[in-house]
Amino acid sequence: MVTSNPLSRAYLDEPLTQTYHELEEIALVEDLSISEARLKEFKEGTASDDNLQILMSTVLEGWPRALDEVPAIYFQLRDEITARSGLLFTRECLIVSAKLERK
User: 92-102: per-residue pLDDT in tens?
Assistant: First the structure.
């Protein structure tokens, strides 16, 4: 005997207001326990760091097949790096620019 999945017929009439990626973005940024001023500083640091900007565009546009086009440490973590709200994360950890890392 074959039974159909009852949830497959229980669709929503109205469209979803938030997508999965929007919810994920909210969670990543809201989970950072830092002030708004510090968050702004991290965003500006990411925007002004040439290496992180290359990484940001690589994450958003797609990873190259060859290792020589991006730093090796990032290439090894390519499946774990995400870009959200002008910031880069590896898993749930924020990737900080070298200039801010010293502070």
Answer: 788 988 888 77
| Cα first-last separation, the chain | 66
Q: Six-digit token pair at 85? A: 């709200």
Q: Which two tokens stand for residue 32?
A: 């950072």
Query: Taking every pair of C-alpha atoms in the chain, what is the biggest distance, in angstroms?
Result: 66
The residue count for the chain: 103
Which distant-in-sequence residues (6+ apart) come within 8 Å of 56 by Cβ?
A: 46, 83, 88
- 77 close to 54: Cβ distance less than 8 angstroms: no
Predicted TM-score (pTM) above 0.70: no
Helical packing angle, 50-61 and 36-48, nearest 10°: 90
Beta bridge partners, 81, equal: 90
- Return phi, psi of residue 80, to 5°: -110, -10
